[in-house]
Specification:
By secondary structure, the chain is α/β, with parallel strands linked by helices. It is 58% helix and 16% strand.
C-alpha cells in the first residue's frame, strides 16, 4: 500500500478548503481511492471557539499566535496517529494509493516540521509492517 499526503498551504480566503474537497471527490469517484480531507481551520474553530476577528490573526498578538501554533501542532500529531491506526485498518483492503489531503495555514518552519514528522512516522509504520 502506498500513501500520499497532499498539503495545501496558502493565506486565508484563497479556496484551500474548496480545492481540497474537490480533489478528494475526484480521487474517490474517478479512481476509487479512499480519501480523507482534514481542515486545520475547522479544528481550530472547534478548539478556540468560532470565528475570530482580524486582530486574533495578527502576528504581533503573542497569545493568539501561541494558541494557533498549539492547535497546528496538536492537529498534526493527532492526525498522524490517526493515519497510523487507519493504515493498519486498511492495509489488506486497499490496493493503490491512500491520500490524505491537509488544508493547513501555518508558518514555513511548522510545515517542514510537520512534513518531517509525518514521513518519519510513515516510514516507521512501513518498517513495522514489513517485519
Amino acid at each position: 500500500m502506498r500513501l500520499a499526503y497532499i498539503h495545501i498551504i496558502c493565506i486565508p480566503g484563497r479556496g484551500k478548503t474548496h480545492i481540497s474537497r474537490r480533489l478528494g471527490q475526484y480521487l474517490s469517484f474517478f479512481h476509487a481511492i479512499p480519501v480523507k480531507v482534514f481542515n486545520v481551520a475547522e479544528y481550530r474553530k472547534s478548539m478556540c471557539g468560532g470565528l475570530k476577528d482580524a486582530e486574533w490573526f495578527d502576528c504581533h498578538n503573542a497569545e493568539a499566535m501561541a494558541l494557533r501554533d498549539k492547535c497546528n501542532k496538536v492537529t498534526v500529531w493527532c492526525r498522524v496517529y490517526d493515519v497510523w491506526c487507519m493504515m493498519y485498518g486498511v492495509w489488506y483492503m486497499v490496493y493503490g494509493i491512500w491520500f490524505m489531503v491537509y488544508d493547513v495555514w501555518c508558518t514555513v518552519y511548522d510545515v517542514w516540521y510537520m512534513v518531517y514528522g509525518i514521513w518519519w512516522i510513515t516510514f516507521k509504520v512501513h518498517d513495522r509492517m514489513l517485519r
